[in-house]
Amino acid sequence: MATTLTSLAARVAADNAIMAAVTGIAAIRNFSTSFKELAARKGSAIRVPIFASTGGARDFNKASNNYAQNDKEVTGTDVLVDKHIIKGVEYDDIDFLECDVQFWEGAGKIIGDELARGIASYVLSFINKTEVPKTAANELVFTASKANFAMLRAQCAKAGIKPEDTTVLLDPTYFASMLAVLDTSLYGGTEAIRGGYIPSLFGFAAVTECGQLSQDPAEKLVGALVVRDSIAVAGRYLEPGTKDSYAEVGKVSDEKSGLTLGIRRFGDPKTGENYPAGEALFGAKLLQPTKIVRLVSEATA
User: Fold this and answer.
1) Amino acid 228: pLDDT
2) 300 lies in a domain?
3) What are the beta bridge partners of residue 36?
4) Which domain range does residue 147 map to?
5) DSSP 8-class letter at 143
6) Residue 268 contacts by C-beta under 8 Å, 6 or more apart in sequence?
7) Are residues 116 and 18 in the same domain?
């Protein structure tokens, strides 16, 4: 973890916040583009690369298939960084006197948990029957069983996606149903038991419990097959314009995912109330809606 904060209290809170947040966005990290901010790129949007194979390898031909005649498979798209979410906690001077460092650990975890929930919910909101085509390739009525789960590979073929590049998201009820029929000594082991995460089941990139899918009854959504780079995500640190108004401001980042959170700490001298708060500034964009399969409890209207 990298942070610009200096006080022990803020560093403890920030470290716990980023650890909780990275864990909380596990459901989307496998298929979304990196959150990594590029400080040199200013403005309301960040350009992120897109890698999409448009054709297979073909026989060499000097005239019709030479080294310069390739499909344009590496492109870029602008992601508008317009989603700003915050989570703060409040404590009185006497609370800090009694709790000390344990308070900052708990405060950081609360901040990270709630920011991650907000980020994941927003990114996953793009998986709906309006933006993802309601076709035989992109909507599948699914019930939890080993046989039906294995048949998800056939659904990948219909949608033109590779299982090894695809994350399977299941709502908590369906994920629990899958755990009930799987022998954990063979499928997932400690990852499934402790982390709600099964790597490489039936050749998929990952199978993840996901409680942030749409709860709209009309969606009937119980899961999704989401291919890598199907949703672009970008974020950056929101630097306060008046730093002197705060006791401390800074950011904390996770190098692997690129996720960056801002931390602000301030207080009210009249009341003795203190406020550590975390924030995330980010955006998301649906890139390949036809490469997503919505798993539903029954066919949608």
Assistant:
1) 87
2) no
3) none
4) 139-228
5) -
6) 274, 275
7) yes
- In whole angstroms, how far apart are CA 179 and each of 142, 207, 209? 16, 11, 11
pLDDT of amino acid 188: 57
* Residue 55: predicted pLDDT: 60
Write down the pLDDT at residue 79: 81
Q: Is residue 67 part of a domain?
A: no
CA distance 68 to 3: 45
Q: Write down the pLDDT at residue 32.
A: 74
Listed as ranges, residues in the chain with pLDDT below 50 are: 39-40
Q: Which of 194, 211, 228 is the last residue of a domain?
A: 228
What is residue 73's predicted lDDT score, i.e. its pLDDT? 55
Task: Give me the sign of the Cα torsion angle 36, 42, 45, 48.
Answer: negative
Helix (H) / strand (E) element for 12: namely helix 8-24
How confident is the model at residue 39, as a pLDDT? 47
Shared domain for 210 and 87, answered yes or no, is: no
| Residue-wise burial string across 80-117, b where 16 or more C-beta atoms lie within 10 A, e elsewhere | ebebebbbbbebeeeeeeeeeeebbbebbbbbbbbbbb
User: How many domains does the chain divide into?
Assistant: 2
The pLDDT value given to residue 33:
60
User: Which residues have C-beta within 8 Å of that of residue 234, sequence separation ≥ 6?
Assistant: 33, 35, 37, 46, 48, 79, 81, 282, 283, 284
253-262 per-residue burial string, b: 16 or more CB within 10 A, e: under 16: bbeebbbbbb
- Residues 6+ away with beta carbon under 8 Å from 153: 163, 202, 203
Residue 174 tokens, joined:
């369906």
Q: Hey, which bits of 160-202 come out as E strands?
A: 166-170, 197-199
